[in-house]
Amino acid sequence: MRVQTFKGGIHPNYNKSRSEKAAIECVAAPKEIIIPLSQHIGAPAKACVEKGDMVQKGQVIGEAGGFVSAPVHSSVSGQVTAVEPRPGALGVDVLCVVIANNEQNEMAPLKGLENWKTADKETLKNMISEAGIVGMGGATFPTHVKLSPPAAKPIDTVILNGAECEPYLTADHRVMVEYAEDVVEGLQIIRKILGAQNGYIGIEVNKPDAIAAMETACKGTDIKVARLEIKYPQGGEKQLIEALLKKEVPSGGLPMDVGVVVQNVGTAKAVYDAVTKGIPLFERVVTVTGSAVPKPGNFMISIGTPVSVVLAHCGVDLDTAGKLILGGPMMGFAQYSAAPPVTKGTSGILVFDAKDVTLVPPVACIRCGRCLHACPMRLVPAEIAAFSECRMYDKAEEFDAMDCMECGSCAHECPSQIPLVQKIRLAKQEIMAARRKKG
Amino acid sequence: MITALLVLCGVGLVMAILLAIGRKAFAVEVDRKLELLMDIMPGANCGGCGFPGCSGYANALVQGSASPTACPPGGDDLAAEIGKILGVDVETSEPMVALVACAGGDDASPKRSVYSGISDCKAAHVVAGGFKSCTHGCLGLGSCIDVCAFDAMYKTENGLVRVDPDKCTGCKKCVATCPRGIIKMVPKKATVHVLCTNPDKAKAVKAVCSVGCTGCKLCVKQSKLIKVQEALAVVDYDSGTEIPDTAALACPQAAIFDSREYALTDWLSNKSTRDTFEKRADEWKTAEKKRKAEAKAKATAKADAQKANKGVES
Amino acid sequence: MSKQLIVSSSPHAHSGTTTSKIMWTVFFSLVPAAAYAIYLFGLPAATVLLSTIVFCIVFEGLTNYAMKKPVSLKDGSAALTGLILALTLPPGLPVWICGIGAFVAIVVAKSVFGGLGQNPFNPAMTGRVFLLIAFPAPLTRWLVPSGTGDTLFGKNVSAFDAAGNLVDAGSGNVDAITAATPLGLLGEEGAKAVSGLDTSSAFLIGNINGSLGETAAFILLAGGIFLLIRKIISWHIPVSFMAAVAVIAGLTNLANPEQYAGALFHLLSGGVIIGAWFMATDYVTSPMYNKGKLIFGSGCGILTMVIRLWAGYPEGVSFAVLLMNACVPIINTYTKPKKFGLQQLGESKEAANA
Predict the structure, then answer these.
(1) CB–CB of C8 and B116 under 8 A?
(2) Could you tell me if C159 and C242 lie in one domain?
(3) Do C7 and B123 touch (CB under 8 A)?
(4) Do C277 and C202 lie in a common domain?
(5) What does pLDDT average to over chain A?
(6) Which chain B residue's Cα is nearest to A354?
(7) Do the domain assignments include residue C215?
(8) For chains B and C, what is the number of CB pairs under 8 angstroms?
(9) Given this structure, which CATH class describes domain A3-20+123-277?
(10) Domain final position from C156, C179, C202
(11) What's the domain count of chain B?
(12) C34 with C54, same domain?
């Protein structure tokens, strides 16, 4: 079958071999679990437990703070010891529910649907919303919002994103191999909710076992398993749509503007679990790898487990490490400590030796054009960055800084090692601030 | 030769006449007031007035949509002149200057990570929450220095930024640039300031900075003009600026700065300043203790005397 | 924590291709051509190469120092400029003229514009054109290569004297060992003057007189193809440059074979190969988009041929590249593609059909 792709993009070193064959292993929840109330884009959840309360595994501890929000569930049974700010993944303290794990694994009463096919759309959507499911590729946009497009924008296609184009990460890969049927069933549920005729699963060809597993699981359905070229950022929503449907999502628009909804394969599995078993999102698969990780692998980790606990499980000595990243190397966030917990959006934990993350001061731009050839959005990163550096943010906006999705392709390619993404991000911040000011 | 000269002169003459006619024919009416105003504008185009540059402000003044006192660099003098030109009365205001409310230099609030990236505070602030232990502390990359049009800001040896109040015109550009909101506008005549903006509780503050305000309220006892909000002391500049030096001496964290006694430049970065301050604070505290003990002794003595009196009476 | 972690903005990975690696790769792709020039012309060639490169590095260092900028010698751009400039100069050029060329290339054409990445014109080309206009005589006196390598320390050692005249070291006989380049002959006397030349072999092995890097087409081509394989340059500029030259030469040759030489002669003579593969492809002074590169390359080719065929100079590559350098900003502006999301790929067509 034809290998499909988009225009632009880069070929980084994928470095997936250390963890792609490692089956998902469960990591026991630690004694203390720290669950942030905001693990998604949108309004933070409101805590509905207090210090001293006993909670069960799967119980709601934070209620959705609005429509674009998601509830938060306990991943252990035990006693709430505090509701207070704790270090979060962005380096600032965020409000968290801290639970002392009594290790009894007392489950809250969970009820799934025996036959989801007979249920109506609203019931299914509510179940997803109540399970606190958000985009698990890292963007953490609440899934039920994505499944509620305005009537004016009918959805005809659902694409499951199994590209996993971020180097090092293999979590989605393992989910596709090990939970193939769950993922396909999840896709069918999503299609039913949206009334979409077409279903695609896009997978990069460096995961032949995942493609095989998905093809087997899709037998007897009309879902198309699409082979994608190994290229970054193949898993970007807009790039995936371009590759599979040859459509461009309008600038500033969303996939639903071209009748498409894209969901991560992990999200599809979570949807399946929520609808058929009533299990809310309280654990996820995380890839732990990198040059400073002696025992890399893919792990099923309870949401709220501190990163330090996971690293200890993998034999990482943080004192000798140089860099700790939550997420992938292209779009993940560097951390100053391992205190933050694993959240719904944590797809990977990467730890690198200091020698692998040596910092080179940038030199002058030589106008080689690598950044603009790499840019999947057809922008000129070097120019936007130059305007940003001169604080000419209005000019940066004119050069379409807001269309940048911060995929990092430009900075990865830049021979002068200019922090293009950081400069563009700064320009975007300033443009947003100026827009808010204007109102 | 002569012909050539005549032709050239003739061409020049014709051109000059055409230009003169053109100037009359296509003249643009300029408001006389606008011209006068443009002449007295400071010309820094700092944007402190909220309009795009000095000409934007002058235009707005002529149209009546701007206040004559809106130009911070010009201050009261300019406001008075604008008032004269526009024929309006101008109320003078208290001159304000910027203050970087942080004393936690590299020694007091050490770095918690090694930052690599562009030298801009706003950018560094969003990378893992900034590289400084205190998330309210001055990052010292100097974005405010970059935007200051009056060369009024500078870096200190211990990685902080300071404002020269004599050069500062109060345009507030730095205030808008600081991602941590630690640059405050204070009355120029104010002498005592709390150099901390961390509202966290004592334990959390002490964990990240040795000179952060813990909200202990010892300063509040020295002056009513200092109030504690959350766990942070704040000077209420609106109510007054007359704060005794004992407020600074009373602060166990040395988070209160008194410009009558020390230079802001070497406040806590200079060892001798620090030693002097600590010595004075110790002396004051000992004296205070002594005074309190004496007062207490007096009170006890008085009470004893009263008791004795009562005893006698009974 | 005993040790602090490094934090930075994403991405946390890099391709490993750095500016200095690129510069040195280009440098080394030209080293064989330089070595061959030394083999052909001996000491005079070595002197020009060495002095130009050293002067360029010295001037770069001095301007860094004068402008209080971090020293940028390690990135190799100065050495590369020196090498390219040297390859465009005739062997035996006096050292002081090389120094002036290096000064113009590094200081006037590059540093005053803000250093690497800011110069609108190719520094090496600017240096060469300056010398060509300022010192026309020494710049157009071409040594006849010995082709044996014995010129290095042998009897044919020659150099310019103080007045800029080329003298034979042995006999002191001025002009005894120089001749016009084939292009010079062509310009003066028409195609019949060069018809005796066995184009393909003489040019390919470089056994002709010309500047250092104009002679050995096959070595230069090999270097260019090496850069293409290493993805340092793309095919667009060299191919369109050479195609434009070939098309114009072919057409004029067809029209009047007496007056105009053929496509192969024009492609292999003069600076077309080095110009198309190494000078026009300079990142800083060439367009960024592929479409723009095609326009730029063919523009260079057309201008080269216009100058060669109908202008006063026998060779036009350096002028053509400089002229096209000036057009780069406007080419970039008009070849910029629409950003993602403004082009409707399949849909607009369907809509149009419906």
Answers:
(1) yes
(2) no
(3) no
(4) yes
(5) 92
(6) B114
(7) yes
(8) 26
(9) alpha beta
(10) C179
(11) 1
(12) yes
Q: Which residue has the higher pLDDT, A1 or C330?
A: C330
Nearest CA in chain B to A325: B128
In this complex, the residue of B117, B123, B128 whose CB is nearest that of residue A336 is B128
> Which domain does C161 fall in, by range?
19-179
Judging contacts by C-beta atoms under 8 Å, the chain B residues touching residue C11 are: none
Which chain A residues are within 8 Å of B126, Cβ to Cβ? 90, 425, 429
Which residues of C make CB contacts under 8 Å with B?
1, 4-9
Chains that touch B (3 or more CB pairs under 8 A): A, C
Residue B101 lies inside a defined structural domain of this protein = no
Its ipTM equals: 0.87
Domain boundary among C150, C179, C208: C179
Element (H, E) at B14: helix B2-25
Residues C35 and C134 in one domain: yes
Residues A229-284 pLDDT 10s: 999 999 999 999 999 999 899 988 899 999 999 999 999 999 999 999 999 999 99
C187 shares a domain with C169 = no
Over residues A160-176, the mean pLDDT reads 94
Q: Report yes or no on B1 lying in a domain.
A: no
Q: Region A324-332: what's the mean pLDDT?
A: 94
Query: CB–CB of A422 and B129 under 8 A?
Result: no
Domain boundaries, given as residue ranges, for chain A: 3-20+123-277, 370-438
Please write the tens of the pLDDT for every residue from C1-34.
457 899 999 899 999 899 999 999 999 999 998 9
Q: Write the CATH number for B70.
A: 1.10.15.40
The distance of C1 to chain B (nearest Cα, Å) reads: 9
Is residue C10 assigned to a domain?
no
Q: Give percent of chain C with pLDDT exceeding 70.
A: 77
Quick check: B114 and C9 CB within 8 A?
Answer: no
Residues in A whose CB is inside 8 Å of some CB of B read: 90-93, 333-337, 359, 389, 391, 419, 422-423, 425-426, 429-430
CB contact under 8 A, B126 and A425: yes
Minimal C-alpha gap between B193 and chain C (Å): 33
Mutate to test the interface with B, among A391, A422, A437 (most CBs of B within 10 A): A422
* C93-115 per-position pLDDT tens digit: 899 999 999 999 999 999 999 88
Range of the domain at B65: 36-93
Q: Which chains would you list as touching C if contact means 3+ CB atom pairs under 8 Å?
A: A, B
Q: Does residue C338 form part of some domain?
A: no
- Domain count of the fold of chain C: 2
Q: Do A333 and C345 count as a contact with CB atoms less than 8 A apart? A: no
> Which residues of chain C lie closer than 8 angstroms to B112, CB-CB?
1, 4
Give the other-Cβ count within 10 Å of A211's Cβ.
22
Residue C267 domain flag: yes
Alpha-carbon gap: A109 to the closest alpha carbon of chain C (Å): 41
B56 domain residue, yes or no: yes
Determine the residue of chain C that is closest to B117 in CA distance.
C8
Question: Cβ of B117 and C9 within 8 Å?
Answer: yes
Higher confidence at residue B146 or residue C262? B146
